Task: inverse folding
């Protein structure tokens, strides 16, 4: 039995067999084979070479077609390395004479080859070493592990293990078949984490190197609450976790029955709107079932990230998705549709919007910047929103607005599209509120400018934290700086609410911060009355709001604002919630 600790990003417990995703950063263990297995191992190698060749040819053709032949030619170099007879001989000799597995033989031979290239004085050869590494990854993927595409087709429910999972890959997972996700890399704020939580899949990321210890179909337990992975657990441990699973199910059933009131009311009678963040239209039903007041954030970019075979969604696809959400939420529950936040880590498969590869995509052409560059896509989306607007009550929100000019341009395009509808006499809601996400320090500093013009704000703490702390939200190396209890972030939130209140602009928080139970009283104490959380967190968030008075929350916020470090704030918030929990639910244990 082996324990690993990582970052818990989506709660829940899963017990099951592991499927290791084909991955390009896998470390390979030295595995010996019996001499009698040599022929079958050589056959396996042969098959893998063939599949790798087809895969590279496919990549070449796709790259040539989509981004130009000069990019396609990169893959010709890959083919050349794959077909190098001396390399192939080296691998076969190792299998035949040293009796090592095909994976190990291939990894060693490719590493040696890359090392030789790196040591050559000519820099052009040295650069080719990374191509050799790519070819190695491709061959290893074919040799060792389940290809990513096959996962979707597999009938078994399993725990998916990978070095890293892109948001576009996560969004294609079938929640019914995926018991849990475990990755070596990734941070708390990564979009993969957000998608996993939307799908309700227990997930632990940033576990560090564990892939060399797993194999397909090994038994594992994933604890998405504690951030723990247990490989090859003993029977006793499995039984202990099975009991935990049963208790969780029972607890959930009880809460669902309890939460029938729409607004959560604090003990001193203040209503709090607990809303939901969604990525996929089908989630709207769940939001109604869990008692969300509305949808505070609909991340529409996921329409571009699900299986589209490289084709961008057209107006009709957008329209159908929005109509589904709005008809489910109806006219009593507001749905805030955020225009596509593409770019950074959310790039549709095989498609980049930037003219050149961006060295720093999180600082680059993403969100509203991309909408203003690709006004064709932006207008198409806005038209679909307007068409769907008659089916429910919606607001439109622009992401990552940093300057007043961006806001005005986006608003102008919105009104221009409205004009088209008026001219055509097409039905639409002519009173759609327009707002922006507050996601950068610039937006906070300039908030009074925006407050004069927008209808509402929503604080995106995931990005606000990333840009305030200058820390990549999905990089586990700097995860400790990505603390949602950062005193700097708290001050920015406080200022946002102060300015927004001065201008009477409703403000919500839709970053992951609001989905953390211990942060709920803090956010209420900072003045928020609308929290948009992941659907799985709605019930608990409402419950916590009902435990506190606003006065108690304000005391908590005041104390937290005086603290120097995120660790101090976190410890204090947890302690405050636990104390309250033990008063309200005397038999409770520490659950923050
Ligand atoms: C945020 O940045 O807090 C947010 C809600 O947007 P996203 O996570 O989609 O970037
Ligand atoms: Mg954001």
Result:
């Amino acid at each position: 039995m082996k324990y690993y600790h990582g970052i818990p990003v989506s709660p829940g417990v899963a017990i099951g067999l592991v499927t290791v995703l084909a991955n390009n950063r896998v470390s390979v263990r030295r595995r010996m084979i019996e001499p009698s297995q040599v022929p079958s191992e050589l056959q396996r190698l042969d098959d893998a070479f063939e599949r790798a060749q087809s895969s590279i040819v496919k990549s070449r053709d796709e790259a040539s077609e989509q981004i130009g032949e000069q990019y396609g030619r990169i893959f010709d170099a890959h083919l050349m390395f794959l077909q190098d007879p001396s390399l192939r001989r080296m691998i076969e000799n190792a299998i035949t004479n040293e009796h090592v597995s095909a994976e190990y033989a291939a990894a060693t031979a490719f590493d040696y080859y890359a090392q030789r290239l790196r040591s050559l004085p000519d820099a052009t050869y040295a650069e080719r070493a990374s191509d050799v590494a790519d070819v190695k990854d491709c061959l290893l993927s074919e040799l060792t592990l389940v290809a990513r595409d096959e996962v979707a087709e597999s009938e078994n429910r399993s725990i998916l293990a990978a070095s890293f999972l892109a948001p576009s890959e996560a969004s294609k997972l079938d929640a019914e078949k995926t018991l849990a996700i475990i990755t070596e890399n990734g941070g708390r704020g990564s979009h993969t984490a957000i998608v996993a939580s939307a799908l309700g899949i227990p997930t632990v990321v940033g576990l560090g190197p564990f892939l060399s210890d797993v194999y397909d179909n090994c038994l594992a337990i994933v604890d998405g609450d504690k951030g723990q992975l247990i490989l090859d657990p003993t029977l006793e441990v499995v039984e202990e976790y099975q009991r935990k699973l049963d208790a969780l199910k029972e607890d959930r059933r009880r809460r669902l029955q309890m939460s029938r009131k729409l607004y959560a009311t604090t003990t001193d009678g203040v209503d709090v709107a607990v809303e939901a963040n969604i990525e996929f239209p089908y989630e709207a039903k769940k939001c109604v079932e869990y008692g969300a007041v509305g949808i505070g954030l609909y991340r529409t970019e996921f329409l571009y990230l699900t299986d589209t075979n490289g084709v961008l969604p057209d107006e009709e696809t957008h329209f159908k998705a929005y109509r589904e959400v709005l008809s489910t939420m109806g006219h009593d529950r507001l749905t805030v549709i955020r225009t596509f936040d593409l770019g950074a880590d959310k790039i549709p498969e095989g498609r980049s919007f930037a003219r050149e590869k961006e060295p720093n995509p999180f600082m680059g052409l993403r969100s509203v910047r991309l909408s203003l560059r690709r006004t064709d896509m932006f207008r198409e989306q806005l038209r679909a929103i307007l068409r769907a607007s008659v089916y429910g009550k919606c607001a439109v929100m622009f992401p990552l607005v940093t300057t007043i000019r961006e806001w005005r341009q986006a608003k102008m395009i919105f009104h221009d599209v409205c004009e088209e509808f008026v001219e055509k006499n097409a039905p639409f809601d002519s009173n759609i509120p327009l707002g922006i996400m507050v996601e950068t320090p610039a937006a906070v500093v300039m908030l009074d400018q925006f407050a004069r013009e927008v209808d509402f704000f929503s604080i995106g703490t995931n990005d606000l934290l990333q840009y305030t702390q200058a820390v990549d939200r999905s990089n586990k190396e700097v995860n400790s700086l990505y603390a949602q209890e950062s005193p700097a972030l708290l001050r920015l939130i406080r200022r946002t609410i102060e300015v927004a209140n001065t201008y009477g602009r409703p403000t919500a928080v839709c970053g992951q911060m609001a989905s953390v139970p211990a942060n709920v009283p803090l956010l209420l104490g900072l003045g928020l009355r609308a929290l948009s959380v992941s659907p799985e967190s709605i019930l608990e968030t409402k419950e916590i709001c009902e435990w506190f008075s606003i006065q108690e929350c304000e005391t908590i916020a005041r104390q937290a604002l005086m603290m120097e470090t995120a660790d101090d704030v976190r410890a204090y918030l947890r302690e405050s919630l636990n104390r309250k929990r033990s008063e309200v639910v005397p038999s409770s244990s520490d659950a923050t």
The longest helix spans residues 38-67. DSSP finds 23 helices and 17 strands in the chain.
